[in-house]
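Worked example 3. Consider a protein that binds pyridoxal-5'-phosphate.
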Amino acid sequence: MNHQNAFSADMTAAISSVWGRLAKTPIVRGQGSRVYDVEGRSYLDFTSGIGVTATGHCHPLVVQAVQDQASQLLFGQMNCMLPAKTVEYSHAIQEATPDSIDTFFFSNSGSEAVEGAIKLAKVATGRPNVIAFQGGFHGRTAMTMALTSSKGIYREGYQPLPSGVFFSSFPNAFQDQCDPEMAIDTALADLERLLKTQSMPSETAAMLIEPVLGEGGYLPAPKAFLQGLREVCDRTGILLIIDEIQSGFARSGHMWAHESSEVRPDILVMAKGIASGLPMSAIGASRELMSKWQPGSHGGTYGGGSPLAMAAGLATLRVIHEEHLIENAAREGEYLSNRLRDCLSRLPHRTDVRGPGLMIGVELIGEHGPDKELVTSLQHECLHQGLMLLTCGIGGNVIRWIPPVNVSRSEIDEAIDIFDKSLNSVMESQAGVALTS
Ligand SMILES: Cc1ncc(COP(=O)(O)O)c(C=O)c1O
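Given these inputs, the predicted complex is written out as structure tokens:
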């Protein structure tokens, strides 16, 4: 098929404009860290579809598993039957999750899983409210919008949102230009105040937190902060829900980003990298907690019933294990961070390169504050030169680096070359800003 002819008319007009889009030209193929457009151009995809294609595009083992499964059973509705692949996957994911998590509910998207986790927490505790943290992103359904505070656009125009949601601070020492310990103490004090003044522990079912803020700026939650939350939860009977939708499945250089804080989640929410591209999400909890969910009080036509997603999920776990992707993410993440620091040392900006493993945020603060203009220009110049990058952060001034977790050293070097050239060309075109080398 001649793709160029097929797309010559403006066919994209039939697609809702609500999707803002980085690359405009239709993409026809992906392999590993690269995608190819209808005009035959190749791009290094360091977005991984916002963290979904964690094992790269079309990993051969994932493709084979999906092809094999497609000829066996495409769908098995969970209330009508029990697909064998779902049973197999639930055992495999049990092995991969912390000891406190041994029972699973499956759904399709991250938002659905977060909504389900909140429902479970409310039913299990008999308490109505939830605490989320400033800058968090948890989805776009009604309840998950209400839990999201990473940008106004995710909520504007949709108010009023579901009630019973309270926000507490997320420590940000770089933004507040303070000592990291002081940022943690202040955030924990905010939480204590909230629990005394707005939502009493007896009314609070759960706290919901991303161990690394995603949309909110690729900002890791400090270990002492997560430990502080755990302590409050243990003291008050509030459940700790950890949203690992973006940070899970080896992305952080650990299987789960919260592992490095040695904190136990009561409920773990997973999606994105879970199945290398097939729609799938999961809620994990202890059997005791899960058993408080009365049969029929939660569900969905598709959740858990897609043997294709389960097969892709099994293959993904196998690839993570056999190809040592946790180690790859840790090692290559450190290399990428160091190379980025070198590149950025020439900028007159205040910069921060942060994040665990291959979940790296680069924040740029210029003379007049968060430099969204430079970040956006850089993103577009990189795309022009064949490197796809996303941005994030409340001020839109953070470049996020989220390549596949099996990215190679030479692909990182290639990406850094493009980034470096783009940085030069953007800075040269910005009058009055001089590089220092
Ligand atoms: C941390 C986090 N939670 C929840 C979601 C929502 O997932 P979905 O877009 O699949 O509904 C996202 C999506 O970006 C996310 O990053």
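Take a moment to read the result before moving on. The pocket of pyridoxal-5'-phosphate is lined by residues 50, 109-111, 114, 137-139, 210, 214, 243, 245-246, 271 (CB under 6 Å). The domain at 3-55+326-429 is CATH 3.90.1150.10 (Aspartate Aminotransferase, domain 1).
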